[in-house]
Amino acid sequence: MTDAKYVLCRWKERLWPAKVLARTEMSATKRKKEFFLNVQILSLDKKVRVKSTEAKILRKSHIEDIASLLDRQSSEESMEFDPINSILEEEEEEDEEPPRILLYHEPHSFEVGMLVWHKYQKYPFWPAVVKSVKRKEKKASVLFIEGHMDPKGRGITVPLKRLKHFDCKEKQALLNEAKEDFDQAIGWCVSLITDYRVRLGCGSFSGSFLEYYAANISYPVRKSIQQDLLGTQFPQLCHEDPEMPVSGSPWGRRQPSRKVLPDRSRAARDRANQKLVEYIVKARGAESHLRAILKNRKPSKWLKTFLNSGQYVTCVETYLEDEEQLDLVVKYLQGVYQETGSRMLTQINCDRIRFILDVLLPEAIICAISAVDQVDYKTAEEKYIKGPLLSYREKEIFDNQLLEERNQRC
């Protein structure tokens, strides 16, 4: 105890992790073993003075449990202590059994910033963060935790009754279910949450989980998953509520509070497309598929259409809307062409740029959609041909622009 830097101490009838600031000896009439500790309560920035007999050394094995409890203190529930077995007794040997953090009742309510479980469509329950709570409507907005999560995203609106607290009784069963198809992904989520709680408990970070995710302190954990694009598959979870006109409203008008601005819709599509770009360029996941087409080992509808189109200029739908993303993919495809496809184009005497845009680009994107969305080639091709799904607001603005241009010509 004399050399401990961090302790567990009792203050206001609770057990708190604290940092030792100073030690003060008691009077000679007291036992030599006893002294006062000036400590700072972690996460509260509160300095208090306690007796050494009312404190225990904070061990690494306790930190995660304590952080888990601290993470829940935003709710109205509190920790309760067992009156029979007091946590803080007179300190004995240093290797004694660590103090037990006793019964914690799972909160009945959900608060902003809480970690929860939510089941989306056919996928297993997945960890999420509560963004907002609407008590009257009995609903909450949650943001799923994943490798490319946007901490500023709005999340999706779900009924409160469909949420489970992250540390609920069924936690292990939910983890086991998620591991069946997404073992590495759910393991990463748990590692991220654990790291957040440990840092919260140790006082190296204070703030919400989303603030932690956006901060540099979480980069080592985030980096481990963002560099492993091929080996880790996340469920295809929804990031924002779909934008739909409100049925039953007069003249089909939509509620202003439900509008999703075009830049948000476009940004959401760009984030989704970034996974395709990284699969193609960084992971080189479509390369074997492209080489097989270039060497005539695999049939290609796009190659056949290209050969039958003659020298006419075709209108290319790139699927990718962001110019930087498109440039990265095209430059990569140029490299693949130079290594493999130059002999084919020499034989058919075709334009290299047209060949890349009309054949290699759609084949690469379709292959990436198939891998990222975990669908077959035909389904991925249908999604590619259909193109980006524009929001209601974007279509409305586009129609207004056309009307304005027509009026100007008239």
From TrEMBL:
Entry GO CC: cytosol; nucleus
InterPro entries: MUM1-like_PWWP, PWP3A_3B_4, PWP3A_3B_4_C, PWP3A_3B_4_N
A GO molecular-function descriptor: nucleosome binding
Gene Ontology annotations of biological process type: chromatin organization; DNA repair
Record-annotated MUM1-like PWWP domain positions: 110-189
Region: Disordered, residue numbers: 243-265
Family: Belongs to the PWWP3A family.
Protein name (database record): PWWP domain containing 3A, DNA repair factor
